[in-house]
Amino acid sequence: MAVDGAAGRLLSLSGLFPVYKPRGPTSAQLLGELKGKLLREAGLKEYMKKRKQTLKIGHGGTLDSSASGVLVVGIGDGTKLLNSMLSGSKKYTTIGEMGKATDTLDASGTVTEEKSYDHVSKDDLEKVLQSFTGEIMQVPPLFSALKRDGKRLSCLLREGVEVEAKPARPVMVYNISVTDFQPPLFTLDIECGGGFYVRSLVRDIGKALSSCASVKELTRTKQGPFTLEEHTLREESWDIATISKALQDWAHLLPAQPGNKRLKSE
C-alpha cells in the first residue's frame, strides 16, 4: 500500500495542538478516540495494525476523568515537546464544596467526612489562599496517575490494594483568586506549575478553614500557550485538514518546533 493522499498527509503531521476534553473519558481514552478517528480517515487503521505499527501521538498532562478543558496533544516529532507541557504553566477554574470530603478528593468519590462550614467567610477564604501562593509543599492525591511499580495508584486502589500516600513535594502556585463565594460552594481561578493537583489544594484549603472540602467541578482553561477559548479543537474538528492548519497557525506559539518529517513506526 502506497502511503499517499490522506495517509501521507497524516503521517507528515508534526507539532503540538490542543483538544477539548469533556467530563467522562480519561485522557488516554480521549487520545485513543482521536487516534482512531484520524487513522480511519486516512484508511490506515487495518494497514498499520497488520504491520504492528502505530501513529506517533501522545498528550502532555493527564486531566482527571471528571475534569474538562485543554489537553495538549503531540503528533509526530511534536511528541518530543510534550515534556515542556508537563512542566509548564497551567490555569484552572475549580468549584470547591466546603463541608464534604471524599476519598478521591472530588465529587466522583465516596464521602468520607462531613464538617460544619458556617463559620467560614469570603475574607477567611481569601486570607487562607495567601499561604497557598508561591512554592508550597503538597501531598498528591491517592487516586492519581502517579505510579507504584509501574501501575497507577488509582488502579491499585480500585483493585483493593493498600496504598501509602506519596510524600509531600514542592509545587509552584503563581496566582489564586476567589471569583465566586456562595457557601458551601466557592470558585477559584488558579495558575500553577507542573505536578500540581487542584484536588489536593481544595482538600488543604478545607483543612486550613477548620472544615473540609472537595472539588465539585474542574476545568483546565490554559496549558502552555494554548487557551480553552482560543485554540482548542472540539471533536467535530478532529480531521487531518483542520489539525494540519492548527499546527501551522500555532507553531509560532512554541519555543521550539520539531522538523516536519515523516513518522517512523514505534
Automatic annotation (TrEMBL):
Instruction: Report the Pfam families cross-referenced here.
Output: TruB_C_2 (PF16198), TruB_N (PF01509)
Tell me the SUPFAM superfamilies matching this sequence. Answer: Pseudouridine synthase (SSF55120)
Quote one Gene Ontology molecular function term: tRNA pseudouridine(55) synthase activity
One GO cellular-component annotation of the UniProt record comes to: nucleus
The chain positions of domain tRNA pseudouridylate synthase B C-terminal read 199-234
Enzyme Commission no? 5.4.99.25
Primary subcellular site in the record, as a coarse category = cytoplasm
Localisation per UniProt entry: Cytoplasm, Cytosol; Nucleus
Kindly give the InterPro entries that the UniProt entry links to this protein.
Answer: PsdUridine_synth_cat_dom_sf, PsdUridine_synth_N, tRNA_psdUridine_synth_TruB, TruB_C
Q: At the top level of its lineage, which domain of life is listed? A: Eukaryota
Q: Which GO terms describe its biological process?
A: mRNA processing; mRNA pseudouridine synthesis; tRNA modification
Q: Which residues form the Pseudouridine synthase II N-terminal domain?
A: 50-198
User: What are the record keywords, sorted?
Assistant: Acetylation, Cytoplasm, Isomerase, mRNA processing, Nucleus, tRNA processing
> Looking at its record, which EC class is this enzyme?
isomerase
Q: Does the keyword Acetylation apply?
A: yes
Reaction(s) catalysed by this chain's protein: a uridine in mRNA = a pseudouridine in mRNA; uridine in 5S rRNA = pseudouridine in 5S rRNA; a uridine in tRNA = a pseudouridine in tRNA; uridine(55) in tRNA = pseudouridine(55) in tRNA
User: Which family, according to UniProt?
Assistant: Belongs to the pseudouridine synthase TruB family.
Q: Which HAMAP family match?
A: TruB_bact (MF_01080)
Q: What does the protein in this record do? A: Pseudouridine synthase that catalyzes pseudouridylation of mRNAs and tRNAs. Mediates pseudouridylation of mRNAs with the consensus sequence 5'-GUUCNANNC-3', harboring a stem-loop structure. Constitutes the major pseudouridine synthase acting on mRNAs. Also catalyzes pseudouridylation of some tRNAs, including synthesis of pseudouridine(55) from uracil-55, in the psi GC loop of a subset of tRNAs. Promotes the processing of pri-let-7 microRNAs (pri-miRNAs) independently of its RNA pseudouridylate synthase activity.
List the protein's name: Pseudouridylate synthase TRUB1
Tell me the organism.
Pelobates cultripes
